[in-house]
What we know:
The structure holds two protein chains of two kinds.
Chain A (H helix, E strand, L loop, with lengths): L2 H11 L1 H40 L3 E5 L5 H13 L3 E14 L12 E9 L9 E3 L3 E3 L5 H5 L2 E5 H7 L6 E4 L2 E12 L12 E5 L3 H4 L8 E8 L6 H11 L5 E4 L6 H49 L4 H42 L9 H27 L23 H15 L2 H32 L5 H12 L1 H31 L11 E7 L3 H11 L2 E16 L2 E2 L14 H11 L1 E6 L7 E6 L13 E6 H7 L6 E6 L2 E13 L10 E3 L10 E7 L3 H14 L4 E4 L1 H43 L1 H9 L4 H38 L8 H29 L4
Parallel strand pairs in A: 3-9, 6-8, 15-20, 17-19
Antiparallel strand pairs in A: 1-10, 1-11, 2-3, 2-7, 2-10, 4-5, 4-8, 6-9, 7-8, 12-21, 12-22, 13-14, 13-15, 13-18, 13-21, 16-19, 17-20, 18-19
Helix pairs in contact in A: 1-9, 2-8, 2-9, 2-10, 2-19, 8-10, 8-11, 8-14, 8-19, 9-10, 10-11, 11-12, 12-13, 12-14, 12-21, 13-14, 13-21, 14-19, 14-21, 14-22, 19-22, 21-22
Chain B lengths: L1 H19 L2 E7 L1 H4 L9 H11 L4 E7 L8 H8 L6 E5 L2 H5 L4 H17 L3 E5 L9 H18 L3 E2 L22 H18 L1
Parallel strand pairs in B: 1-2, 1-3, 3-4, 4-5
Amino acid sequence: MSFLKFFWRDFKSDVSFNHFFILCASLGIIGLLLVESFKGGVEDKVTKNSKNFIASDLSVSSRRDFEPAEKTALESYFKARRLSVAQWLETYSLISTISLSKSSNLETISKLADLNFVSEEFPYYGGVVLESFGFLGSGQWASLHASPVAWISRDLAWELKIKSGESLKIGEMAFVVGGIITEDKFSSFRGFSLAPKVFISTRYLKQTDLVKFGSTANHIYALKISPGKDLKKIKAEIRQMIPDKAIKIIGPEESSEQVARSLKLLSDYLSLITLLTYLLSLVGLYYFSQHFLSKKLKTLAIYKSLGIKISFLFRASFVHLIFLTCISVLISSSVVLILLPFFESFFSHLIHESILFRLPFISLLHILLLSLGGSMLALGPLFWGALQTPVATIFQDLPLELKRIKNYYFIPLYLYIVALAFILAKSFKVGGSFILSLLVIVALAGILFKLLTFYLEKRSSSFSFINKHASLTVSRYFTSSFTIFICLLIGMTFTTFIYQLDGSLRSEFTKTDKSKRPDLFMFDLQDSQAVKFLNLVSVQKWKQTIFAPMVRARLIKINQNFTQRLSQPGEREFSTREDQDSERMRNRGVNLSYRSSLSNSEEIVEGKFSQKVCNQKIALCEISLEEVYAKRVGLKLGDKLTFDISGVEITGVVTSLRKVKWTSFEPNFFILFQTGALEDAPKTYLTSFIVHTDDEKKLIFTKVAELFPNVSLIDISEIIKKITTIFDLMAMAIKFISLLSLFVALIVLVAVSYNHLELRKKEMTLFFMLGLREQLIKKIFVQEFFILILFCFLLSLFFGSVLSFVLMRYLFDSSELLLLSVVVPLMAGIGLFLYWIVFVRVSALVKTKSLF
Amino acid sequence: MRILTFFFLFFYFSMFFNARATTNILFLGDSLTEGLGVDELQAFPRLVEKILKEKKYDIAVTNGGVSGATSASGETRLRWHLKKKIDVIVLELGANDGLRGLKLHETENNLREIIKIAKTKKIKILLLGLLLPPNYGKKYTNEFELMYKNISKSEKIPYMPFLLKGVAGVAKYNQLDGMHPNALGYELISKNVAAFVEKNL
């Protein structure tokens, strides 16, 4: 018989196996494909948003003017690499309205503006929304360069009391207001702009006479890099050409530190989930194949007795697996391709911005290879072991078990999983820790399961008949019980882990409550102005989020040791940004504040926050530190910190560490003193407002400018809207993918349970033949499963939580959160669901009373 | 015996005089005084103290610089410092007012208020002048420069026209932000300020 003919006949005879394999593998692969396309979509969206901040793929910028040699080198390089370049110069200047006639009584109004001189190529990404013109993106800025016009932000138009078509003076030149900007996509999170933006063509830069020796400006080359070109390589080449760190080379990922960190967290999380989803489906496949092969042992023995060689049979099995995997990939890809447009429209609707989920061919190929590799390495050894079964098995009546599989058959699979962990996690640290944790879990689970069976066997004599039988079955059929136990346990542990991680990570991007997001940020209100200001707020009924005193100080001693490290004169740069940050953290001035209570965005993670008033004569005042700041500076509870506040030293002791949710956008501080310590120190106040209408915003701007001219008021609503859109998307991505993994886990767990019961069908009938009532048989099997599920539930909670705790704390550098209030009911629900499935299935199986 | 008595009295009064002669100098300013981005010991007030002490002046310097401070905060901060004995105030405020485009008559009023308090307390006051970068526009930068001149003239106080002379705009003397001097820049500034303070002590 030809190989193909044999293969096809054999393939057709295993219908149920084929169906389950395709179902289980497809679910796993659908999970992988969705995670992959979703990850791509979110990353793409975040990258696009980040590109908007720099209006390009890469920006080369400097706070000083480029030296002629640097300019030549850069421009030659851009030309040689055929990179499109836009010139962008950002500077601050006072701009003013123009009196129509000298006799006019109208006084000119001057305001500080953030001037942006841009060349015709600008912008490559992002754009502005102009009142009565709409959004103007790449290639739509021609009118800005056609004549001396300025596009000015709406806040500035309010402050200058100017409209479109009217004139204003910028430097030495008059411009006509060509448009009022209602929204601009370039505002980055790197720092708030101190003044409203104005866009002007670089053509008029010289005439304004603003930029010359001594001027402070940010000189930027904004580069567009075509998709085929390697951004990292270009960055490295430019850096090699210009080593001076004063020249910043910024790609989309660095355009926002906060977004980059969040994106990394999300990417790490999604990679881990990809691995987990895949391993879950592999667990299901493994378990089902084991069951299938146990049933097929006799058929295989018959084949062998007919003289068919093991290698021939193995080849047939091998092709069988490849064939099934390919069908699964084909089905899952089709399902995903059909589903993606629906997901796109659903998520686009949720975030009010379009998002594109793609499934590139290369991802499909990766997933096909991944699936083939997993199937071969996990199931191949099972098939090989099954083929080793002696021919004499044909004459055996009892149910057969796969006993000829050696543990070392799975070494390639273990290595494959380790490699996958490293590749998918894209980090030795994350991948390694994950694998190590998995090994520890399996080892511990083995020991604990052995102890459980030992205990059940010992104590079974004191149990009722049902419990005794259930307990003894668990201990006597150790191998099969342990297999289902470990499969259930891994499934449930992964689910616990995913949900712990999901909760911890989502808290990083928690959707900020729109009603609590500040729109205006105000600072530099003087102590002497505080009462007058608060009265104004009260009369006008403005909504403040917080009103915080800020005391400038310098950390001079930690536990009586001076903090300062003297750098040598001329030492201008640190070797890395991290070195610089770390040194500055210790060395620089700090902003202190004091409060008797925590804000909504704060939570104590260590120690105790003092709400009492400090009495310096009795004891040192207590200090609460933000946990990341404490870590960076190397501070811990009990440390005594001495600050120099305008020449006066004050010492306090660290008594608590706080986690601050910076994404709440509430003004917050690294260092908080107990009340009673800093009240007399020179201080300023900062606050933020929530505004509901443009008129209210305009009123605040006008009143504050009139009554408190020294105070700075910044509109942050646009920036916050941008950052929260990204965070909301990330939070949704995590939630969605966790739900998907839960779905895969449920299918796998149900399938594993079903198959285990299938194996025990004959045993049930035997009980029936021995005279046991149906009800009793049901109770025995349900009870046996109850023991397994309960044990799995408890252990999975423990292992999943520990795994999440370790990963969050040591790898994701995030404060760990054990969300037991979410995970316990969830896992209990899954446990009950499985119990119910088993109950229904056992009832059905008992009724069949079939030995065959 | 007379000679001995004379020497004894001379020595005694010299000691007494020296003990009483420690001059407390307060540098009241913003980030330029505070030394943003460098150690406090490398900021110019501490270096001025070092230079003058090397020249045997008996002085004690307080660095009252606060980053981001505008002239509006000067009065409150001065009152905080007046809890201690102050003999000389070196006033360096107004840069942030200018950089934030605040109305200069407000800045001028604030500076005059500080000077008034100092005069009331019989404290000698020295004014450090500043210039704004040209990108702030000719009119505003000229008015800003003139403001210090006017204050100095009408209040009759010593005035150093530009604190960052020789430092502003020169990359090697500034930090990466192009605004704040580095350790090298502060060395240069401190020499100029020390000479100015020494001349007016």
